[in-house]
Design brief:
This protein is mainly alpha-helical. It has a two-stranded antiparallel sheet with strand order 1-2. Strand 1 and strand 2 form a beta hairpin. Helix 5 runs antiparallel to helix 8, helix 9 packs antiparallel against helix 10 and helix 11 runs antiparallel to helix 14.
């Protein structure tokens, strides 16, 4: 089995998560051990991972750091940040820090589930399309193009409006609207590997199709798959917040998106309660920035031209 890796460069598809178009792989350029070592020695990747770990720990420890129901109303309404309430309170007397900590549980969970599911479907469709070719390729490419051509935001709004509210609905809606861009990119990368000698050798030796796709082709697309996954996670977190901010999610739950929705609904901007809006918005931006840093580090590690320019 070959251990070559892919080389992604930036590209965006409208209505779909940000994904990256790969360059032709350089045979024998990077093995998996080298990739892991590259991630662990890259400052951008380490910083991004550290930020993600901090947010993950805060989400896990939310019941200990902010016990009780964060949605319960309190007597101290619209208080600015102070020693008693580090991030202030809402107009209903809810502690903003508690809402932000509890909200991270839903937002991070939905984001990573959407990212993993959308990437899995993208891998399945993209690799199958490239491997089988002919009628299957045409059929899967047509399906991919249909989802790419459908405007993403209107489809999100329509699906979210007609399906029962809840985190599961948000995940389903975001996966349905988010896999096509990944499939297109992964198909192009798989096509370049389909003609390689090690794939032809596997076909000649009678290996099953699924084994060739997932044991021979997929491991050689590790870097582009990771870049796609990170892009899909960013898409999942941002799109969930956008849907819930528009009131299309489960407004009874606590997430960064519903925090923004209730802050806007309670007129936080008009009353000048900036501390109600800011924490959840900053949290979304910081997590997206951390994921983008890791994505950039993956590109930097797997792209020989970036490594050469850095050394120069």
């Amino acid at each position: 089995m070959s251990l070559t890796d892919s080389t992604p460069t930036a590209s965006t598809t409208a209505g779909n998560p940000t994904v990256q178009v790969p360059e032709p792989p350089v045979p024998g350029r990077l093995v998996h051990g080298g990739f892991v070592h590259g991630i662990l020695t890259n400052k951008k990747a380490l910083f991004g991972l550290a930020v993600l770990v901090v947010f993950a720990l805060l989400a896990l420890l939310a019941p200990l750091l902010a016990p009780g129901n964060p949605s319960d109303f309190g007597p101290e309404a619209s208080l600015a940040p102070s020693a008693n309430h580090l991030l202030g309170t809402t107009s209903k007397g809810q502690d903003v820090l508690a809402l932000t900590l509890w909200g991270s549980r839903s937002s991070l969970t939905v984001g990573f589930i959407v990212g993993i599911a959308a990437t899995f479907i993208g891998c399945l469709v993209g690799i199958a399309s490239a491997y089988f070719g002919k009628a299957i390729d045409e059929l899967l490419s047509l399906l991919t193009n249909i989802f790419l051509l459908i405007p993403g935001l209107p489809l999100l709004v329509v699906l979210a409006a007609f399906l029962p509210p809840g985190p599961a609905t948000v995940v389903v809606v975001l996966v349905i609207t988010g896999w096509a861009g990944s499939a297109r990119v992964l198909r192009s990368q798989a096509l370049s590997l389909r003609s390689k000698d090690f794939v032809a050798a596997a076909v000649v030796t009678g290996e099953k199709a699924w084994r060739i796709m997932f044991r021979e082709i997929l491991p050689n697309m590790a870097s582009i798959v990771m870049s796609t996954l990170l892009g899909c996670v960013i898409y999942g977190i941002g799109a969930q917040a956008g849907l819930e901010f528009l009131g299309l999610g489960d407004t009874g739950s606590v997430s960064w998106g519903t925090n923004l929705y209730w802050a806007n609904n309670d007129g936080a901007l008009m009353t000048g309660d900036w501390w109600v809006l800011l924490p959840s918005g900053v949290a979304i931006a910081v997590v997206a920035f951390a994921l983008a840093l890791i994505n950039y580090a993956v590109d930097e590690i797997t792209n020989p031209r970036l490594r050469v320019e850095k050394k120069g």
